[in-house]
Structure prediction request, 288 residues.
Amino acid sequence: MDAANKRMLFVSGLDPEVTEETLHAAFIPFGEIIQVTLPPDPSSSNRHRGFGFVEFEEPEDALAAIDNMHDNELFGRTIAVRRARPGAINSTGMVFKAESLVTNTNDVEMTGSGESLGRENPRVFLEFAVDGRPSGRVVFELRDDVVPRTTRNFKALCTGEKGFGYKGSRVHRIIPGFMVQAGDFTKGDGTGGRSIYGEKFDDEGFSLDHSGPGMLSMANAGKNTNGSQFFITLDKTPWLDGKHVVFGRVVQGMDIVRMIEALGDKSAPLKPKKEITICDSGIVAVGQ
Prediction:
């Protein structure tokens, strides 16, 4: 597949209220967009067919969009985001039938940053409270297939099965445009925390990149110093690649992450505007 074809995405499952403008707004955080197309429904003068196309300037931006938007929600509906099949839109702008518009399964199982689009990997959730009031849930896919030791640690801290974990701990660091950091359940200020393997454990690998918003990565104090602290990216952070272990991504609740981001202050990253805590956490059952 050439670079031009890798830039075009097929987005399905769209709510009837979605417009080209709202679709553009949803995908522009991942990079420059060439065009957005919503094929009209021939049976209606003001409706689209429930799917559309987003073409990016750069293939890597399209991959980041797949990583972050596939199986996520837009206007209350779960959407699918995949590479469009070459020639899905011809030179006259005609769109062919929907079942011929995406690449085959082998093309979309893995993206350029190593993201799996299947459901074989476990999913966990963190429920956040602001000033003691439950404010929303964030669901993560954990890359068990790439860094199983790291994901096992995070999953156990979500369930609390070892007698300790994230429930009741606070978000202690927010840098708008960069990241949200949490997971220090022993001191709460970024100097504590522990893993299920002991105080620290080694870096497991760096095959997954900080390719866009919503990547889940281990915070550390240098090489091989992983504990329980983690961060969620708010943008691409390629300078962290090879230094922090990426082990998952947000698949639902990026709006909650953005709400938390809004409570941060770049001039005082360790002093969020409100108290933000993890009030609940656990495993997401298959099918939910």
Q: What stands out?
A: The mean pLDDT is 85. The longest helix spans residues 148-159. Residues 16 and 157 are 40 Å apart (CA to CA).
